[in-house]
Amino acid sequence: MNGQQLPEVSCSATPQGHIVPGSLAPHAKFVFPFNTAKIPPKKTFTLRLAIRNLETGFFSNPDLSYYAAPQEVDPESGLIRGHSHLVIQRISSMKSVEPVDPQEFVFFKGLNGKANDKGELTVELKDGLDEGVYRLASINSATNHQPVLVGVAQRGTVDDMVYFEVKAGVKMPNQP
C-alpha cells in the first residue's frame, strides 16, 4: 500500500503495533441522535459521540500515510492514540434487513480533534438531511486510520450505531 488507499486488492507490510488489553478497549455511544430519534428535515443539528479509552486528536494525512504506521499507545495511560469517523447511510426502512453497501453514504467525516470536556466528539451537520431513514455509525481508528486493535476477541464492540428517521412535521428532540 505504501501509505496509499488503493481500491484494488492490496496488502500492508506494516507491523500492527501496540495492541491494548480488553480493559483498555475504546468504546463509544452516540448521544445525538439517539436510537429511533425523529428529526425534522433540512435542519442543522450536531452529531455527538461519547468516547472512552481513546486518546483522541491523533490523525495522519490519509492521502500519504493510510495504514502506513503501526498502532501507537500513550506511554502513560496505555490508551490507543487515534480518532473517530462518523458515517451516515440511508436505509429503506427501520425494518430493513438488507445489507448496506459500504461505498454508499450521505455523510462522512473524520473527527480529527480532541474530545471536548464532556468526553464527546462533535460535528455540525449543516442543513440536516432529506426525509428518510438513516443509520449513523462510528469508525474508531488508530492514528493511521486502521481500525483500533484490541488483544481479545470476546468483548463488546468498539464502535456504536444508531438508526433514526428524518420526517416532516416533527420537532427537533431534546438532547441529553
Compute the gyration radius: what is it?
17 Å
How does the overall form come out from the CA principal axes?
globular
User: Topology as H/E string?
Assistant: EEEEEEEEE
Low-confidence spans: pLDDT under 50, at least 5 residues? none
Q: What's the number of domains? A: 1
Structural class: mainly beta
The CATH architecture term is Sandwich
Q: How many β-strand runs?
A: 9
Task: Figure out the total of helices.
Answer: 0
Rounded mean pLDDT score: 93
Q: Mind telling me the CATH class?
A: Mainly Beta
Strand and helix layout:
Layout: E1 27-32, E2 38-39, E3 45-52, E4 54-55, E5 80-91, E6 107-111, E7 120-125, E8 132-142, E9 161-166
Parallel strand pairs: 2-9, 4-5
Antiparallel strand pairs: 1-3, 3-7, 5-6, 5-8, 8-9
Task: Explain this structure.
The chain has strands spanning 27-32, 38-39, 45-52, 54-55, 80-91, 107-111, 120-125, 132-142, 161-166. With 176 residues, the chain is mainly beta. The strands form 2 sheets. Strands 2, 4, 5, 6, 8 and 9 form a 6-stranded mixed beta sheet that branches. It is globular. The chain is 0% helix and 33% strand.
Descriptors for this entry?
three-stranded antiparallel beta sheet, 33% strand, globular, mainly beta, 0% helix, single chain, 9 strands, Immunoglobulin-like, six-stranded mixed beta sheet, 176 residues
Summarize, please.
The chain has no helices and nine strands.
